[in-house]
Amino acid sequence: MLPVHAAAAAAASLGLRSLRPSPPALAMSSASPYASSIISLSLSSSQPILRFGSFTLKSGRQSPYFFNFGLFNSGKLLLALTNAYADAILDAFPEIGLDPADASQPQVLFGPAYKGIPLVAAIAAELARRGRDLGYSYNRKEKKDHGEGGSIVGAALAGQRVLIVDDVITAGTAIREAHAIVAREGGQTVGIVEALDREERGQDGELSTVQEVERALGVSVVSVVKMRDIVAWLRAQGRDDECTAMEEYRAKWGVN
């Protein structure tokens, strides 16, 4: 049986997701423990990773929040982020690392260069600490013709079910390139895990970038934090002004 996240993504890949140009305010719900921990840490670190205000995105939109995952730049912060990634992965793939013959579960983690390299190594180590030992690998930007050679460092991808690790899917270009690398090496991408899903429409159409990736590649995208988690956290903390700004932004640009 597919995990809940995977089943939802499968429906999305078939175009079964209900699309609304102006989604209603999010229903009362609570963020997952791992999402809440990352949101709290992001606001309390010496350099705020999550900030509220008015920020101009590359798209030209004025966003009421900005998440800078590049500021997870210390051992302590990376450890916390790694734990949250591992929680999200185990939530989506509860049998991962237990039975190599289980065709629904990833066997290898792949982190596209460069930002995916420290993430994939740290996540593999954390999953192993929890008794789920998987191979991990990453790509070189330039192929080597000496030493071990090739463009892949780490576990071989050929014949393996692969989970791609990324931070934020922005335009979807990089994740499509990572998917192509896995395929070229003879692997099969069975899922993608990212840190943040902004849950907002792209420049064209009614789908978000994540939904477009799910539909194009036919795999589920697992997110550690979603915009709805941030809204739920703000509501629980009584931060009404920021919560209202987020919900107004979602009403204009959001997707279900």
TrEMBL record:
> What's the Enzyme Commission number for this chain?
2.4.2.10
Matches recorded under SUPFAM superfamilies: PRTase-like
Q: In which pathway does it act?
A: Pyrimidine metabolism; UMP biosynthesis via de novo pathway; UMP from orotate: step 1/2
**In what residue span(s) does the Phosphoribosyltransferase domain sit?**
102-201
Q: Which CDD domains match?
A: PRTases_typeI
* Molecular-function GO terms, alphabetical: orotate phosphoribosyltransferase activity
**What cellular component GO annotations does this protein have?**
cytoplasm
Q: Its GO biological process terms? A: 'de novo' pyrimidine nucleobase biosynthetic process; 'de novo' UMP biosynthetic process; pyrimidine ribonucleoside biosynthetic process
Sorted alphabetically, the keyword list is: Glycosyltransferase, Pyrimidine biosynthesis, Transferase
Per UniProt, subunit arrangement is:
Homodimer.
The UniProt entry, under NCBIfam families, shows: pyrE
- What family classification does the UniProt entry report for this protein? Belongs to the purine/pyrimidine phosphoribosyltransferase family. PyrE subfamily.
Which PANTHER family did the record assign? OROTATE PHOSPHORIBOSYLTRANSFERASE 1-RELATED (PTHR46683:SF1)
User: What does the record give as the function of this protein?
Assistant: Catalyzes the transfer of a ribosyl phosphate group from 5-phosphoribose 1-diphosphate to orotate, leading to the formation of orotidine monophosphate (OMP).
Would you tell me the protein name for this molecule?
A: orotate phosphoribosyltransferase
